[in-house]
Amino acid sequence: AQTVTQSQPEMSVQEAETVTLSCTYDTSENNYYLFWYKQPPSRQMILVIRQEAYKQQNATENRFSVNFQKAAKSFSLKISDSQLGDTAMYFCAFITPFSGGSNYKLTFGKGTLLTVNP
Amino acid sequence: DTAVSQTPKYLVTQMGNDKSIKCEQNLGHDTMYWYKQDSKKFLKIMFSYNNKELIINETVPNRFSPKSPDKAHLNLHINSLELGDSAVYFCATAGAQETQYFGPGTRLLVL
Where does residue A67 fall: left (phi above 0), alpha (psi -120 to 50 degrees), or beta otherwise? Predict the structure, then answer.
């Protein structure tokens, strides 16, 4: 079974500081895609960042970057210069598109609630 | 234009009723999904359709029946609603590099 584990149910950070959210996953596939989604109080699911497993270079999107360790099956999200608008639930997810069938789906972690304090 | 839209946004109903949630996407994607987010915020896939064909049915009770009249629409009909059906339901589509784009969600409350 494919699983995603986010070991930090809640985290808080001061505005302008840096915070790292952890995520580990389990799959027997070699090719897959990893994602971080953000869900603010508005409940909209917003894509934060994406990483292809075959790429060694870590993905970066402005203040958001990942530390992808394929051998360790670890995919952490770093948020630099945290802003109040970053307060949200953050979900780690992955999909294995090449296995097909019932595995062709996003598997989510349980989420980390991040609060940015002024 | 909203890429993935859902109606209604809120739905309050009595146990035993039948209700539908509609989803429409204008991204031209072939694959659409329904997810359920429970009270603990856990997101789980319910169904997946590819070009109107059912691909995934994740052991969802048969009171839930998805219908895809065309590639741009995936509706969810729920019969005999139960208290445990209360949740937020998200529609999503899959685009390039397997990125999924979500609708705004429908909050269903069964009384």
Answer: beta
Give the tens place of pLDDT for each residue, B20-67: 999 999 998 888 999 999 999 999 999 888 877 887 778 789 999 999
- Give B-chain residues touching A89 at CB under 8 angstroms: 41
Task: Provide the phi-psi class of A111: left if phi over 0, else alpha when psi is between -120 and 50, else beta.
Answer: left
- Token code pair at residue B72: 């741009």
pLDDT digits (tens, 9 = 90+) for A49-87: 999 998 889 999 999 999 999 999 999 999 999 999 999
DSSP letter (8 states) at residue A84: G
Cβ of A50 within 8 Å of Cβ of B97? The answer is yes
The first and second tokens of residue B5, run together, are 């839209």
Whether the link from the prior residue into A41 is cis, omega within 30° of 0, is no
Is B9 part of the contact surface with chain A (CB cutoff 8 Å)? no
Token digits of residue B51: 């070009």
